[in-house]
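I am still getting used to backbone structure tokens and would like to learn alongside you. Would you supply a protein for us yourself, any chain you care to pick? Start from the sequence, derive the backbone structure tokens from it, and show both lines together. Go ahead whenever you are ready, and we will take it from there.
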Amino acid sequence: MPESTTPLTTEQTALEVMQCAFGPDHHVLEIWADMPGDDNACHAAVNQSREIADFLVRSEGYEVFVSLFGEEDQPFGFTLIINGDDSDSLPAPNVLSVHDDGRMAFTYLISTDEPTTDITALAKAVKPGNGDDRELSADMPLPGAGWSLDSRTTYNRYAVAALREAFGLSAEKGMSADVPPHWNVIGDFPAGVLDHPVHASKLPRQCTKKANNVFADVRGLYNHIAQHPESDEKEGAGIVGTLFDKDIDTGKPRRKIRNAMTVGFIGFDFDGGQTEEDAVARLRERGITFATYSSFNHLRDGETHKFRVIIPLAIPFDTSNYKSREHANAVWKATYEHVADELGFECDLNTKDIARFFNSPRHPAGGEYFSHIYGGELFELPIVEPSESKVAKIAKKRGVKLNYDTTGEVSVHNGSGLEFFLSLIGDGEDQMGFHYPIYSAMCAYFADDPEAEIGPIIGTARKAVEAAIKGPARSSSDIERYLSDAYLFADANNAKEFIAERKQRDRDARQRDFDDARAMADELNEDSPDEDINSVFAKMANLKETERERVFNRLKTAIGMSPASVRRLYRDWRALQADAGEEKSSTRFESMEEALKAMNEEIALVGRGSGVMILRQRPDGEDDWKTEKAAETWYAPWQAGQGSNREAVFPVWREWENRRRFEGVVFEPDGCSPDFYNMYKGFAIEPMKSDWHLMQRHWFHVICNGNIPLFEYYMAWFAHMVQSPGEKPGTALVLPGPKGSGKGIAIAPLLQIWGPRHSVKVANNKQLVGNFNNHMAGKILVVGEESTWGGDRQTDNSLKDMITSETMMLEAKYENAVPVSDYRRFILPSNEKNVVRATPDERRYAATLVSGAHINDWQYFDPLIAGFKDGTFAPAMLYDLLQHDFSSVNLRQPPRNDALVAQILENLPTADEWLRSVLAEGTFLDEDDTSLLTQRQEQEWKTQPIQVPREKVFQSYRSMVTAYGKKEASASEIGAYLHDAFKHTGVEISTTRSKANPREYLFPPLPELIEAYDTKFGLPLDFESVESREDFIRPDDPYSPDAFENAQDEADEYLAEFFRS
């Protein structure tokens, strides 16, 4: 080290000192970390030097060569040789060596054209240490083109004063060190965030032995993430959000839970659950700083988004605050799940271990990749105990007892975990979305048999997802992903692997308990206190019966008691433990009378078809139907009495004469006999007079495109739904429009009005018209999201029947179908043009063409989303709809507008298309679009009837129309079509037969045919629009701001008057 030094003052940070040395010259930067006894701090200093090197190498005109030196348990040095392009403007000779109470020393050396020391000699004198954590290799990449000193490079050392005079210490000179230029930064960093210490580690590989290479601060962590090098291998260096203690076995830091000391960041791994855009939007709402980077296989298949999110913590998670590091890991897992749930993350829950390793950013050649750094405040981690987690609270409410293993993983006490976790799937109250409960249900499935086949649980999970409640914000693409084989197989394999690992951990733990129990039993004697015997019993609790017997044998010999006496002592101890743990249980009752009363409030016996079912009314308002056998299993934990006198409650309730019972199930909004169970429960919210003008505008301008009659019809349709839910309008709303135009946000308040009990979103025709339709029970509003059933005749026929039918057959799998009243209304939003098979005489569909004017306009959508999320729109909308007088609107006669005509034309049969072609062209065309009439005939047809040979008509018809089974249309079929096409119009197409002419068709004058066609079908041949300009409020000039503002004001006045009247 140079002898001449200058202390580092409080006003002068290390980066400021560095700034004064930057310039377009040759530099050598030498950094020492002199912190004996503090390995983590020492390595932090070394890593900081690497960050400085990276900062320099990305500055134009620099190439950095690096040497790392120092021996084990000695100060580490780090030398950078920085080759600049310009050596003419070198400052006067000087040297700066900075020391700060022995904690760190920085020495900045400037090389000149007159070297005095050969770098080769320096390289020989300061060899790299022999520790694997300090090797220079591709696994621990350092910046620059090389990994060693250049033997041709030399350097000199100089005095301090001239350096200060030449460069000064102003932050305005040199390059800014706040945010390196290669970072892809979004947002601003509050003061101190980047310099905040971060408790995290870098490892050369996931399975590396030593784990003591640590970051200095958030800046260092982000600098690591900001680099995304190309690589041939997915595996390699990575990061862990934890600092590790020395291992009890090796005396060196190891990446194990038992060595975890503190955690400095929380990381999430996404494997197709969400896009980075979605995850970022959720985090940006919190105003916190975080980083994202793509994984190695991001978009490898062209569609699966794979990336990671890293969130630095304001206060490290400290394992010393808990009774053990295993307990701390369990708390960390519960906290991790809570944070993921609060953020709405669909991430890989296998990454929640406290020692989780995340591969550093790297991408294959030609692969898509990204690294993004987001500014904000540091994240305050909310600590959640396992018993306080969401799943624990739901289980307690339902009377389900949970077990926690040593890692904090949850299982159900009585083995009914599969049913419990399946019941958590969905967006209803006391449900946990889709990702977590699907994975947990699969874990429960494999818990009974780790070698079980994957197929059955995938089928079970898929059915649960199909039947689950979908919230208004849940997109159909989400559901399609959860239903996909790729997603379900991946989750099943992950669950199977996890259970196998847990079984092995359990076996290892049980073996330790067995060994400890035997050793402790050998230490006992006849005078041993009860506490010591109970300690042995505690070790025996999780042993197998055969293992427990072997401990009993040692105990009876040690304490001089008979085997029966020892077993009785053990049973008494277990009973005391059970009573102590169940004082506050919601499934244990002092008396059977109390238990029967509680159960009667929760369930009822209901006649269903020729059998009976048990109805459980869940807290979220949904009906949970169970067979008697399933109900008995579900309520097995319900017991009354004390100790050995406990009795199961359900069998007694089933025979109890005062049990709650119903003759059958009905769905009657207008009320029914108390002997029947009525699925109708009314609105999910209370109406409230308030402001929802933003949503009114959205429906008027975007959904209805400023069409006044259509808007009034839609509002009448909604008002009828809330005022007369016991009547069906006989029509459905069809909402085609581009993706992102706002269809979902418009419908969301309607779903909130009815809640999950009386509304549902479906994503495919199976969910809409399938046989097993229990998810349709008790529904008033059905939203067929992303509907594309225009080409499916069978589905469309079923849908049309459901729109008008007054009854439906309600059928759950393995249960008898029962008839109930059908009061469902249907809204069909879609990104496709062809939504439904509308016919020329259509009377079931009220269609619109949704405007795409605000796609990606978040300034427009953010207030709408806010109004939906805070629940202000739905109560106000309900209030106005309940007051609205819709008597002037005929709901069974929807507006015939351009949108409906477009649906009709999209679905015209080819025979009708042929007829329109004939009328529009004024002739009959063959397959080459050549006229089969003479010019004279075409002219005559414009004013008078004409005779056309049958074969020419047949030839033209067959050129466009194929009969059923791809056969050629017969003469009789063509004749029948021509007769039916103009039936009841007063115009007739007849046939003639004479000696002079072969059999011919006699067609009335063309104008008469066209008029008759327009009258019957309402589809003008010269279709541009069937709408009137007076029916709209739109800007006269869509590109004029003044015209737009005038139309907005006019529409606002109209809306205010409309909802006042």
About this structure: Confidence is low (pLDDT under 50) at residues 1-39, 56-177. The longest helix spans residues 485-522. The two ends are 89 Å apart (CA to CA).
